[in-house]
Amino acid sequence: TTGQKNKNTITNDKGRLSQEEIERMIQEAEEFAEEDKLLKEKVDARNQLETYCYNMKNSISDSDKLADKLEEEDKSAVEEAVTEALEWLDDNPAAEKEEYEEKLKEVEGICNPIVSKVYQGAGGEEGEEADEDFDMHDDL
């Protein structure tokens, strides 16, 4: 050590925030927190729809999953529903959370019965697997 001693004094000088400014900043932060929460819910809903569509698209083209098990008519119905939903996503980047959820229900309404039919015909073990693969949005 050099043997020098320094004395630091903290004072409430210029540049400090007043109590009024602090309260205003807290209020703004609370308002932004609500906006952030709503935006996150909207993004999550969009991601659920997008993930579901891409999982279905991959499943119907993967011979280890659904490709070889689907009748051509069912495969076309799934492809059409998924393609339409993905186009809708591209055309509606500013959609609301509820719109994304409604579109997901619509696509699931077409795809889930087809997938269930395939796995019910294959037996119980794969049927449970199908529930995990295609109902993943329930876990989020």
From TrEMBL:
Pfam families documented for this protein: HSP70
GO cellular component, as recorded: endoplasmic reticulum chaperone complex
Transmembrane segments: none
Region annotation (Disordered) ranges: 121-140
Biological process per Gene Ontology, one example term: endoplasmic reticulum unfolded protein response
InterPro entries assigned to the protein according to its UniProt record, in alphabetical order: HSP70_C_sf, HSP70_peptide-bd_sf, Hsp_70_fam
GO molecular function: ATP binding; ATP-dependent protein folding chaperone
Swiss-Prot/TrEMBL keywords: ATP-binding, Nucleotide-binding
Top-level taxon: Eukaryota
SUPFAM superfamilies: Heat shock protein 70kD (HSP70), C-terminal subdomain, Heat shock protein 70kD (HSP70), peptide-binding domain
Acidic residues: bias regions: 125-140
Family (UniProt): Belongs to the heat shock protein 70 family.
Protein name: Uncharacterized protein
Source species: Pyramimonas obovata
